[in-house]
Amino acid sequence: MIRTVVCVEILCDACGDGWTGDDTGPRHFDSPAAARAGVVWEHGWTATTAGTVCADCATLAACQQAGGHHWPSGEEFCTRCGHPDYGHQVDPNADRIAAALRILTAA
User: Fold this and answer.
1) Distance, CA of 27 to CA of 7 (rounded, Å)
2) Rounded alpha-carbon distances, angstroms, from residue 49 to 13, 73, 77
3) pLDDT for res 2
4) Which of 1, 76, 97, 103 is 20 to 30 Å from 44 by CA-CA measure?
């Protein structure tokens, strides 16, 4: 049997990644409200009136708000967010950090 099913998937407004739950594929919800509730309460996403941000982007944004990545001498990972040292070059996550900050700080 083939049938059409209508459902809701949730994507991070900062990075565009979807929540897969247990990494077996996209998680489907019955409504936008159920999607937000599922990822916010169970998986650390943040929902504001401006959008929805995954836990990873929210962590990166919090790191930026705290002053940016912090790699003490000899450390390979940021002590604030756990992201790797990119040789102190431009962080490849800069665009998604900026997008997450816009969403998280929207009034």
Assistant:
1) 10
2) 12, 40, 32
3) 92
4) 76
